């Protein structure tokens, strides 16, 4: 009998780059930014054919639990892995791995994805995840899926593939933090892949590598059987899964993925994944354009009229209007951090 496969969906965070639509009480993963369903609901629906509805687990904050249950049809409270506080992705995935072993036994496998992605080809996405999980289990490796770049994007980290392993997978030569635009173009030309944050491994193999390479979590790992409060309360140094585990381990492999992946991290990113009109405007709500092109507009409760403008991002919600440019949209978090509390924390 094959080991059970679980899917862990990371669904914490506020998504401040999608203000004013995304707020602490209504984060972007719970919003219908790409389709008519919340992004998290779309993510779960993509995974059900791969692992079954009952083996999709949602990793999120305690405060978002009720909202997530309301947003995703068929999800039960038992499928929520609740963090009492944010403590970095290494801790979050260690907690998830422990939960997977408790449910599926010592050989249980897990694939890890984020809740705020656009996926163009869901069938190929699932096929790639299944292949990565099989390779990771067979080799007792930690597998990541690196996306074949469609452009030299400085907004992503990159992976340099190394020697061939098997089944199309390669060893990871190195991880590279977000480069400038010139270096990004050089890396794309050299065959680097985008660091997507898609992972697959046996849950126990991840815990073994954390024990071997991640001293930041040593105190917490000793308390993980005492419950979430004890585990997360023992963490003093937060660390990401990339820095704390993958960059330190010699057991990491990468499989190239090409299935229309997009990390929908900013308003400008929505222009890539939403449908456009003939002039390249991506809109939601009542939007009227005249001699306008390349704009992204999201209107809730109000109409927006654009005349003779290009490259703008316009968002209207509950009496608050954001106007910026596509180029500046990636820096929106810096603006939000300076806002008065009543605007920053809209209900």
């Amino acid at each position: 009998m094959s080991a059970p496969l679980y899917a862990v969906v990371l669904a914490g965070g506020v998504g401040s780059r999608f203000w004013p639509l995304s707020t602490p009480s209504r984060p972007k993963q719970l919003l219908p930014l790409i389709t008519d369903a919340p992004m998290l609901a779309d993510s779960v629906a993509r995974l059900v054919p791969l692992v079954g509805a009952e083996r999709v687990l949602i990793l999120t904050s305690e405060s978002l639990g009720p909202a997530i249950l309301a947003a995703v049809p068929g999800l039960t409270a038992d499928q929520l892995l609740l963090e009492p506080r944010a403590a970095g992705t290494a801790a979050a995935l260690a907690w998830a791995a422990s939960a997977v072993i408790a449910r599926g036994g010592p050989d249980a496998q897990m694939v890890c994805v984020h809740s705020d992605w656009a996926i163009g080809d869901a069938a190929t996405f699932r096929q790639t995840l299944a292949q990565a999980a099989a390779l990771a289990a067979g080799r007792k490796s930690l597998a990541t899926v690196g996306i074949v770049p469609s452009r030299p994007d400085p907004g992503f980290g990159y992976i340099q593939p190394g020697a061939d392993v098997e089944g199309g997978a390669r060893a990871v030569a190195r991880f590279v933090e977000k480069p400038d635009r010139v270096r990004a173009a050089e890396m794309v030309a050299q065959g680097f892949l985008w660091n997507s944050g898609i992972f697959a491994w046996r849950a126990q193999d991840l815990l073994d590598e954390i024990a071997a390479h991640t001293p930041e979590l040593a105190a917490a790992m000793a308390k993980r059987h005492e419950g979430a409060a004890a585990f997360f309360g023992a963490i003093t140094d937060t660390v990401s899964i990339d820095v704390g585990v993958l960059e330190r381990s010699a057991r990491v492999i990468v499989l190239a993925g090409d299935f229309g992946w997009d990390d929908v991290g900013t308003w400008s990113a929505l222009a890539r994944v939403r449908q456009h009109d003939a002039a390249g405007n991506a809109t939601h709500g009542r939007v009227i354009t005249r001699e306008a092109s390349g704009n992204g507009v999201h209107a809730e409760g109000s109409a927006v009229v654009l005349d003779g403008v290009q490259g703008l991002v316009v968002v209207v919600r509950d009496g608050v209007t954001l106007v910026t440019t596509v180029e500046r949209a990636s820096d929106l978090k810096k603006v939000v951090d300076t806002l008065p509390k009543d605007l920053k924390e809209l209900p």
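Residues 235 and 246 are 19 Å apart (CA to CA). The chain has a mean pLDDT of 91.
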